[in-house]
């Protein structure tokens, strides 16, 4: 994403949610036993912790990169598969989310929740991250199909805390009843209301970044996306011997179920590019 300040200056941003309690994982044997005994283990653990007042907390952090520094890294900043090393770009913690209650109605509050990366507030804009660009369209299409129409944002669980208004009207599963005859501007039948909020520098409305584009825009991945192994190698070498053995056991188990020999060979070839000992 990008952050846009009041002067219209853009800064690349990567958002992080980090659990205050830290991270813990299950090893293969534990996962198999728990899955057989209690398939809802993680869900139950979360529910019981909240009911007991042991609220899970997550810190919101930002990694900020000025646009003029986009090419200072040995990978493409817009490659969603790459991590930005925190040693180079520290995570600035700006907030906290606390899960302080369980849902009263699981269907209404969980099953109908519609997350969407395109629902943003003034001050945030989109980057050219190809994964993000694809999701901006697909999430709308998915929620329309899953929740029955274009008004999924009016379902109570999806409504913002701060009310907002737009020119959208009617359609399947409309929640509100509009009595104003005008849902467009300019108009002469309602004193020219509603009207669009001016951009952020004036009144706080949304305005896309005025971005200069050089060169030709083509449907092709940049060569800067072509390095696949450096970060997996760093991750592998950062693991303890026991953790490395868990990774090896996991790959061995999954590949043992693959019938086609050439597929196993391709996977092993990729692993050899990460580390010859792997």
Question: In words, what does this structure look like?
Answer:
This protein is an alpha+beta fold and 278 residues long. Among the domains are: 82 residues, no CATH class; 51 residues. The protein is 30% helix and 12% strand. It is built from seven helices and five strands, in the order ββααββαβαααα. It has a five-stranded antiparallel sheet with strand order 4-3-2-1-5, with no helix packed on it. It is globular and about 75 Å long. It starts with a strand and ends with a helix.
Provide the low-confidence segments as ranges. none
- How much of the residues is beta strand, in percent? 5-15%
Count of β-strands = 5
What would you report as the Rg, rounded to the nearest angstrom?
24 Å
Q: Which geometry do the CA atoms define?
A: globular
Mean pLDDT: 88
Keywords: Heme, Hydrogen peroxide, Iron, Metal-binding, Oxidoreductase, Peroxidase
GO molecular function: catalase activity; heme binding; metal ion binding
Family: Belongs to the catalase family. HPII subfamily.
Protein name: catalase
């Amino acid at each position: 994403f990008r952050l846009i300040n009041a002067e219209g200056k853009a800064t690349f941003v990567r958002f992080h949610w980090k659990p205050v309690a830290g991270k813990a994982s299950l090893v293969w044997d534990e996962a198999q036993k728990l899955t057989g005994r209690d398939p809802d283990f993680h869900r139950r653990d979360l529910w019981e912790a909240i009911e007991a007042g042991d609220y899970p907390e997550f810190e919101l952090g930002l990694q900020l990169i000025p646009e003029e520094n986009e090419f200072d890294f040995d990978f493409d900043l817009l490659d969603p598969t790459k991590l930005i090393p925190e040693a180079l770009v520290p995570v600035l913690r700006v907030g906290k989310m606390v899960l302080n209650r369980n849902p009263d109605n699981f269907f209404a509050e969980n099953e109908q929740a519609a997350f969407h990366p395109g629902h943003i507030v003034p001050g945030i804009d989109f980057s050219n991250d190809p994964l993000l660009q694809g999701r901006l369209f697909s999430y709308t299409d998915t929620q329309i199909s899953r929740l029955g129409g274009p008004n999924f944002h009016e379902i109570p669980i999806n409504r913002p805390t701060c009310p907002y208004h737009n020119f959208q009207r009617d359609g399947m599963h409309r929640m509100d009843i509009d009595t104003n005859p005008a849902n467009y501007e300019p108009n002469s039948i309602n004193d020219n209301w509603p009207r669009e909020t001016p951009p952020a520098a004036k009144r706080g409305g949304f305005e896309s970044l005025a971005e200069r584009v050089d060169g030709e825009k083509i449907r092709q991945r940049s060569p800067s996306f072509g390095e696949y192994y450096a970060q997996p190698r760093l991750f592998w070498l950062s693991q303890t011997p026991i953790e490395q053995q868990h990774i090896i056991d996991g790959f061995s188990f999954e590949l043992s179920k693959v019938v086609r020999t050439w597929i196993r060979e391709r996977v092993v070839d990729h692993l050899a590019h990460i580390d010859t000992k792997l």
